[in-house]
Amino acid sequence: MLDGYPVFTPHSEYARSIASLSFGVLWTALGIFLLVAGLVTYATYKFKAKPGEKTPKPVYGNTKLEIAYTLSFVVILGTISVFSIRAMEASDPPTGEHPDDLLIIAHQWWWEVRYPSAGIITANEIHIPIHHPEQLGFESADVIHDFWVPELGRKMDIIPGIENKSWIAADNPGTYFGACAEYCGQEHAWMRIRVVAQTPEAFSAWEQAQLRVPATPENGEAMEGAKYFQELSCASCHTIRGTDAQARIGPDLTHVASRETLAAGRLDNTPANLAKWLLEPDLVKPGCRMPNLHLPRQQQDSLVAYLETLQ
Ligand code: CUA
């Protein structure tokens, strides 16, 4: 019944503990609602005034009944508290005993994703091997954000100057969707996350591919594009390893073509969409930090050709 609602379709032990609690509270609340609504409906019909009847004598209090329902609230809320505390412990095991597996840096309005031990830097798309809990460290580059991938783990606020950590894991290969869950400005809605959970073999193949330094094209349009990338202001915000572009204001583009989306989920990553993004970032994602460079058509085509080589 609740398939398709990520909170209720957990794919990790952390998310499962949260989903069980949600279901438990939901069914308990539904039971109480049905009981109360049922009793009200029953009383409405049973004690309806009949023609000629006098106003009945009011009943003032019933000590036994009052003690019974007060105790039932204590029992119900006490039980929910016990299960809540258990779910909190299960979904949020102790962190900080070993270094973070991933460092997530939230920016207005995209996610920087770093794998400190491997040295990989990517954006908006997190790859993890299945059955391998990953400790996430969070940093904010600007305002408060919130990381949430409901199928894989708990929500975590990302607050400037505060070091928060949490865990995610996935039982099955697949792509799991998440989003920033704290209003962080104009493009908050387009601050999407995707977690690609892979078999260990597929994950290490991805890792190897990400670690490669892409070859700079030596002819054709792509070569022109590589030149424009350095000459225009692209290189003052982005990094492409193996080139002079080493800035960290925008996403690392070393393997931009290997990612599924552009602009934190705003567009599917296709050459046509990349062209659109380069040409009118201010229309595609109003308020975003990517400037409109008013690129002439030919520069735009060359840049697309170059960026598409960054697999
Ligand atoms: Cu970042 Cu909302």
Written description of the protein model:
- The chain is built from 7 helices and 12 strands.
- The chain is an alpha+beta fold and 311 residues long.
- The chain folds into 3 domains: 2-48 and 61-91, Helix Hairpins; 102-210, Immunoglobulin-like (Sandwich); 220-307, Cupredoxins -  blue copper proteins (Immunoglobulin-like, Sandwich), CATH 2.60.40.
- The strands form 3 sheets. It has a 5-stranded mixed beta sheet.
- α4 (220-231) packs across α7.
- The radius of gyration is 27 Å and the shape is elongated.
- The two termini are 40 Å apart.
- The model has no long low-confidence stretch (mean pLDDT 93).
- Dinuclear copper ion is lined by residues 106, 109, 145, 180, 182-184, 188, 191.
Global morphology: elongated
Assembly state? single chain
Largest sheet: 5 strands, mixed
CATH class of the largest domain: Mainly Beta
CATH homologous superfamily placement of the largest domain: Cupredoxins -  blue copper proteins
The CATH architecture term of the largest domain is: Sandwich
List ligands, each type once: dinuclear copper ion
Proportion of residues in extended strands = 15-25%
Short description:
The protein has 311 residues and is α+β, with helices and mostly antiparallel strands.
Task: Give the secondary structure arrangement, pairings included.
Elements (H helix, E strand, L loop, with lengths): L12 H34 L16 H29 L10 E6 L2 E6 L4 E4 L1 E5 L4 E7 L4 E4 L7 E3 L5 E5 L5 E7 L11 E7 L1 H12 L8 H12 L29 E2 L4 E2 L2 H9 L1 H4 L12 H12 L3
Parallel strand pairs: 1-5, 4-10
Antiparallel strand pairs: 1-2, 2-3, 5-8, 6-7, 6-9, 9-10, 11-12
The structure holds dinuclear copper ion.
